[in-house]
Amino acid sequence: MRRVVIATILGFLAFTLLMVNSIEAACTYKTTNGKTIDVTSVDKQGGYNIITGQDWDYYFNVCELPVTSPSGKCSFTPTPQAYQYSSKWNDCYPIGTKGSPKIVPLVPTDETQGVKITHEAYAYGTSKRELVIKLKCDQNAASTTFTFDGETTGAISTYTVSGSSKYACVDTAPGPDPNNPSDEPIMGQYGIGGLLLTLLLVGFILYFIIGALVLKFAMKKSGTEIIPQFGFWKDLPFLLLDGIMLPVDLIKGCMGKNKYQEMA
After folding, report:
1. Among 18, 108, 246, 252, whose CB has the most other CB atoms within 10 angstroms?
2. Which residues contact 20 (CB under 8 A, 6 or more apart)?
3. Helix (H) or strand (E) holding 11
4. What one-character DSSP code corresponds to residue 183?
5. pLDDT tier at 13, thresholds 50, 70, 90
6. CA-CA-CA-CA dihedral for 79, 80, 83, 84, to nearest 10
7. Is 198 exposed, middle or buried (0-12, 13-18, 19+ CB in 10 A)?
8. Residues 29 and 115 sit within 8 Å (Cβ to Cβ)
9. Angle of helix 191-213 relative to helix 2-25, nearest 10 degrees?
């Protein structure tokens, strides 16, 4: 039973680390020479909106921050990356699937020119709509503004917007523009992954401090007895080994069973 528990804990920890890594890397591009383009800080509280002056306007964000819905008509599950909304007809359509976007160089032969960010098509009714964001590198850009390039229709309709940003340049450290408060990301350079790891670390430390105080002063323990679950932590290396070996033993068992069936 303990082996199953430890295996479950190890699986949970591995899943958490993978989630943290995917969150942190969702809006980054690694160049062929190992440099990084991180466009996370292009995200804006509430998102960007492009008022075209025609029948349809566009509301979107670049990475993971939510977009303020322009109307109650823009209510979709799951939440899309962008909205196409018409105040004239009070109608709305979802564009792009939230998650891990595909990021490639804006110019394939020159990775310093910027990036193209594609949010996979959102299926709604009989149509599919994807969002393409073209970000040109501009080291002198104080803030980021976008223009609507147009729509191409087909099996998948593509909606393209373009803009310029210093964060689309190689190895530009993410962070808010001090001259543009609206450019402040949700947690600055800290990130959601950093928050999750910090909460885990703080919880782990509090577990030992509070547990030790309770055992020492309330239960009058001393020595190693004031360490919460001391027996568990002492046996942890062996428990971890058991947890690791559990799936190995299961695989071996299945393989042995198959061999037995073949011989039979």
Report:
1. 246
2. 192, 193, 196, 197
3. helix 2-25
4. G
5. low
6. -120
7. exposed
8. yes
9. 140
